[in-house]
Every structure is written in C-alpha cells, then in structure tokens.
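Run YcxB-like C-terminal domain-containing protein through structure prediction, thanks.
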Amino acid sequence: MSIKVKTGLNVGEMETFMAEKYKIHLIGAVVIPSLCLILPGIIFLFLFYNISVVRRMSILLIVLGILLIPFSYITAPIIQKNMRNLLMKKENNTVIEYELTETELIQNVTRQNGALETKVYKYSMLDSAEEKKNEFIIYVTKMQVFLLPKKDIIEGTPEELSALLRNGFGSKFKKLN
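Sure, done. The structure for YcxB-like C-terminal domain-containing protein is below.
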C-alpha cells in the first residue's frame, strides 16, 4: 500500500506551525542571554559592592541585560519577516511530493528550475509523527519536520495514512486534536 501527498512549500503553514511549536525557543532566545548578563551583575554587585570598579561593571551588566530584552523583541519580528520574504522568493514554485509506503517515506522535491531531488527516509531513521485536525507532521529530528496537509493527499485517504503511520512509527505516533 502506498499513499501520495503532493504539496507546495507553504510558508504560512510552516510559520504557524513553528510559532506554535517553538514559542518557548523565542522566549529562550530573549530571556537566557539577558539573564546571562543580569545574574552575574547582581552577584558581583552584592559580593564586591565595596570595590568601585566592580560595582560599576556590575551595574553596566545589569543595564545591558535589561536593554537586551526589548531589543530582542523588536528585532525578532523583523528578522522573521526578512527570512519569510527570502524563502518566498527562493522557493515560491517548489512542489514537494511525498510517497509513504509500509517502511519508508520518499520525498521528491521539484524546484523552480525543474531540478528534481529525491530523498528516502526509513521510518526507523525518523523521530516521530503526529496527526492533527488538518495535517500530519513527521519529525525527521526535533527541529526538522515534514508537514503533510490532509487536503493535499492525492492517492489514498487520511485514514489510510493514519493507519500507515501508526504501523510504521508504533508508539512514536500520536493523534492530537
């Protein structure tokens, strides 16, 4: 049995998925560097308060850590928008076809210039899979995914694909609503 899904590169769906799944990473990218400046500043301030040079440096670390938070929140959407625009220009006419069999996932990518790239993934090489209301998500790693919208299935049905993934991934397959 084989199921086929043919989709284009949908930047909007990918952004929504990434924002939902990795929201904590954006918070971590802002908070952790700030804390790396603020906490040593506070520690040095209390431990070496009597030494004026250390006190000044501690206060500087705390101020820089605090200023880093709004700077990160301001620049993150700008970087995201620029990356989205770059991706839209580069991959606008890319067609991705997935064929899922009992043991493997075959990915055929047709680029704008007509170049065809084929990759074969055994289910044992993949991390996990999820079924959501409108799509299937196959995790190559924790950070790389294949989004298979149910509406883009061209051979087979979502139920057949769900059964195929459940058999292929076993306990690493989750059905979410």
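The CA atoms of residues 138 and 146 lie 5 Å apart.
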